[in-house]
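U., I forgot to send this yesterday:
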Amino acid sequence: MQFTSTMTGLPSPSPLQFAFSSKSSAHASRRGGRPMQPEHQQWLAWWQQPSQATERALYLHIPFCTKRCSFCNFFENGANPRRIERYVTALCEELERAADTPLAQSRPFEAVYLGGGTPTDMTAEQLALVLAAVRRFPLAADAEVTLEGRLHGFDDEKWQAALAGGVNRLSFGVQSFDSKVRLAAGRIDDRDTVMSRLQTLGRRNQAVVVADLIFGLPWQSHEVWQQDLSDLLECDIHGVDLYQLIALPGNNLERFQASGRQPDGLPSHERALMYAAGADRLERAGWQRLSCSHWRRSEDERSRYNQLAKGSAEILPFGAGAGGKVHQFALMNGRDLAGWHAALEKQERVPGMVIASAPHAAKEGAVRHAMDCGVLPYSLLPSDQRALLMALFAIWQQHGLAECGQDALTLTLAGRFWTVNLQAGLFECLDAHREAPVGHPGREGLAHPGVGR
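Result:
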């Protein structure tokens, strides 16, 4: 078959910078699922069936934020105290009903994630109520329980409520320590305030503390990014994610740049160098890379939920805007709060999307997870398509994106930076092969195209 440049990348003296023009998306999505609208009785029946999953997690969505970040296009609701109070009450009732079902009780959950939005905008009392409802589910003895949020407003009362409720991992969206960059991004506190609080929580060593940093933000030069990395290393926290800014439509950053209020961030080929600098600084400091975007200083940090979510684990979703999977059905709850509340009051399925997984979804989830970690064992490849993919991998190796070992494909630094593009290219290749009609050359032989075709 003819490989496209979106599958293979382009040849370049600097594949880290120029193998692709830009990162294709935040995640490599898959096709092949079948949208459906289950009847109410079918939906209820799912919760009466024991789980067959070997890996499970819970996801709780808290769709409120005190302030909208300029780069975010997922903002849903302002942090109105009355709306949060009503939401928390309804969410706890939903959790309590679900926890008593055979589906929930049949197997333990290895991870819990309270995401958003900004879950730390809940009060200490609300946080305690939600965590008490979570404990009605059968959690593994070493379950990772993560609370996501921002450092602003996360006082010691909330810290103690989180620990008492079973939280053993906290993930804070720092994005940058630089005060000018933070102001432009819509963050609230300045550098000194953020660093002081993060150092305090990390050094207590009572729970794993991790932070997110974004590279490519407005006003964030290479020098600023190096200082961000230095500041991070001073904080004595347990882990960090380095994320490239993705220009998703509909955010304030897009409007600010269009009006000239803010400059564009550095282009993709410059962001690639920032990624390389981040990987180098962390690994020279002794941090271990767990995935293409995540590093840890301490073995206490497992990033368990993130690994499960990028694979094929069963993840029960709760809350407006939550996503996950029940049995073999992918779910995405609608974001509309009114519709969510109305459905819960009637004890009906929350409005949203339900997609029956494609037959190959579990195997491809394992491939996606392995590539996200930077090493893809050949044993995970579909046996009937291994020759096809090995031919693709050979081109990746020629382009400096991977190394073909005896038993596994290992992504280079450039390949790790472009991992989402490579995953998308791999799945594009599989889809093209599956869709080729019988007798089509795509099923009879492999032609390596000229680069850039």
